[in-house]
């Protein structure tokens, strides 16, 4: 395949790009960052460009046979609409065979006032309408919450020094945690498995875990006792803003404010194995993922949380 990967310089798109390269496929992407500030992606061709400019997106898609799309952490509806329209048009005009859209989060069945949900709902609608009848197959994957979010400056130090696993979800919330690597496996399957055109999959990990159950998995992976602490979404947003900026942090944390209120528990669960069967993927258990991460890098950091 020759795959246009939108978002390859981010964590989720980067995992997909790396997996594609590992399996011998050609990958290219674009970035607004200067060349010296882009993440290193061996084997990936990265051009300069902006999703808001159609000509840049057209060049990305030119000659591609497939596309994998995850949008950046942008939550302005007009900007997201322009991104999605440009991508759909470029996919149509280039004649890619299939486009896989990762919504980045589950989307509630009803509309909300949460931009993190509604901008992704808008994008999926644009892709479905814009690609309808074009010959470009659309497959949508909707992940829950990423294990990789826990390997971070706001989790690693407290976990290593105090055995505290803090996250902005209630103790009893049941979550189908998924790693970026397993997301990439699901996207790869969505790109390649026959008979998936028009379908959407609520992908997730192999087990649905509460906070304490997740802490047990972490304990097994680390070989130590770990306890779960529900973090206030406002505290999470404050820490995230230092990494992403206030606007992106507000967009991301709005999702957690909504989920912490327990309004729609189905947003966090899996689809009872439907996607694992259709996509033939077997996500790793949380303990296996934990055991593979270089947690020792956080032992000298200063962040901690109180119960």
UniProtKB/TrEMBL annotation:
Keywords noted in UniProt: NADP
Database matches in InterPro entries: NAD(P)-bd_dom_sf (IPR036291), NmrA-like (IPR008030), NmrA-like_oxidored (IPR051164)
Keyword Transcription: no
Domain NmrA-like: 2-240
Alphabetized SUPFAM superfamilies for the sequence: NAD(P)-binding Rossmann-fold domains (SSF51735)
Family matches, as Pfam families: NmrA
Highest taxon of source: Bacteria
Residue ranges crossing the lipid bilayer per the database entry: none
UniProt keyword NADP present: yes
Family: Belongs to the NmrA-type oxidoreductase family.
Name by which UniProt lists this protein: NAD-dependent epimerase/dehydratase family protein
């Amino acid at each position: 395949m020759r795959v246009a990967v939108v978002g390859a310089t981010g964590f989720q798109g980067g995992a997909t790009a790396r997996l594609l390269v590992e399996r011998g496929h050609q990958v290219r992407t674009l970035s607004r960052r200067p060349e010296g500030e882009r993440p290193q992606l061996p084997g990936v061709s990265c051009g300069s460009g902006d999703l808001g400019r159609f000509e840049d997106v057209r060049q990305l898609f030119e000659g591609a046979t497939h596309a994998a799309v995850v949008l950046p952490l942008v939550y302005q509806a007009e900007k997201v609409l322009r991104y999605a329209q440009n991508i759909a048009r470029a996919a149509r005009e280039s004649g890619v065979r299939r486009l896989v859209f990762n919504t980045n989060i589950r989307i509630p069945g009803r509309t909300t006032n949460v931009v993190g949900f509604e901008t992704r709902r808008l994008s999926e609608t644009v892709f479905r309408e814009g690609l309808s009848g074009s010959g470009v197959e659309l497959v949508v994957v909707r992940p829950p919450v990423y294990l990789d979010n826990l390997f971070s400056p706001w989790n690693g130090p407290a976990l290593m020094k105090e055995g505290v696993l803090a996250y902005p979800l209630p103790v009893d919330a049941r979550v189908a945690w998924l790693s970026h690597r397993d997301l990439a496996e699901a996207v790869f399957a969505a790109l390649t498995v026959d008979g998936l055109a028009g379908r959407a999959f609520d992908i997730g990990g192999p087990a649905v875990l509460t906070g304490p159950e997740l802490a047990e998995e972490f304990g097994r992976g680390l070989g130590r006792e770990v306890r779960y602490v529900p973090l206030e979404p406002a505290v999470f947003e404050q820490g995230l803003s230092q990494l992403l900026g206030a606007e992106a942090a507000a967009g991301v944390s709005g999702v957690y404010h909504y989920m912490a209120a327990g309004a729609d528990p189905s947003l966090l669960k899996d689809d009872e194995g439907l996607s694992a069967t259709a996509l033939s993927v077997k996500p790793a258990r949380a303990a296996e993922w934990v055991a593979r991460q270089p947690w020792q890098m956080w032992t000298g950091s200063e962040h901690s949380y109180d119960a």
